[in-house]
Design brief:
By secondary structure, this protein is mostly helical. It has one domain. 49% of the residues lie in helices and 11% in strands. The protein has a two-stranded antiparallel ribbon. A two-stranded antiparallel ribbon has the order 3-4. A hairpin with a 5-residue loop joins strand 3 and strand 4. It is globular and about 45 Å long. 32% of the residues are buried.
Length: 202
Amino acid sequence: MSAKSSPIDSAGAKIRRKRILAAIAYFLKNTRNCRKTKLGKLLFFLDFTHFKKYGTSVTGYDYIAMPKGPVPIQLYEAITNDSLHEDFRKALSIVEEIDDDGKSKGFMIQVRPKANIETKWLSPKELHVLEEVATIFRDATAAQMSEITHLKNTPWEKTLREKGPNQVIDYKLALDEDITLGTDELEERLRIQRELQADGRA
């Protein structure tokens, strides 16, 4: 996500940023208590639910199994290292909140008043899953969402148990008996998405 780490700034990469910003803005406007930690979990549920249904993620982010839950590593590092792409800086206000003891309470993220962020960059299927996730977790706190991601045999729990902390969570762990597409087709769609992202076409 950092401008420095993405030398290719193709039309595909720009559209991907618009999709990510649309998802972030939607969550910020339609859920409560949405700081960095909750936002990361919302994006995780968005991406893994969409992958389970359609074989691709919405954001294209990788998630790692940190001790407190799944984290979109590219976004997390960009916020923490103050290396967000200029498009994100123009659209979002990100401020670290400090308590009375000088300790960080986390990052407060808001959509800038004049930001023009539109959901038209999301497909109808992506928008449907986005709305579904926002509705389910509208009033949830980050701690409550952590309880759900920490349940036995969830993608985060499996990754932490089998690989250890700070390892990438395989999207295929979202698949279960409820999938509507074949596993091979889902894997092929994810592979194509990754290739398109790698050369800046998505």
